[in-house]
Amino acid sequence: MRVRQGNVRDWPFIYALGKIGIPESISPWRRQPMEVTLKYREEYLRGFWTWIEQSKSTVFIVEEPEQDEDSSARPIGYLVLHGSSQEELTGITQGWIMDIVVLPEWRGKGAGQVLLKAAEDYCREHEIPYLGLAVSSHNVKALRLYENFGFAEERKLLVKNVE
User: Fold this and answer.
1) Which ranges carry the N-acetyltransferase domain (predicted)?
2) Distance between CA atoms of 118 and 110, rounded to whole angstroms?
3) Could you tell me the pTM of the whole model?
4) Sheet bearing 93-102, strands edge to edge
């Protein structure tokens, strides 16, 4: 697998894949029909590339291994890194992973690790001291990936249904 920096030509792939990972990412505490959630996500994604450009965020695309010299590599996942985010309590600049998604058939095969390494390398090269992300606590596979990659829990986001 190889990783490269993404560009606007990757947008159709990002847009389509960005909708696929939602069911695993939604907290069971959020009681809303999935079709409503997916409609919200679609609206969010419509403006995502504009936000990426305006915020000077970086997109990484991981591609499947090339089968032979004549075949073009197919994208299998992406990561969006906001490289100038500020931690909310200290104001320290950090890299923040806004979104990371891998095609379902490529999950558990190292694509996520390749993307995380690209984000980490970017932060080191740009002297960004921290790299953060948010993940739903029930998304055990993603949690395991991040913890194995060296991420540590820093804070907990709590929610209560008051209906």
Assistant:
1) 1-163
2) 13
3) 0.89
4) 2-5, 58-63, 75-86, 93-102, 131-132
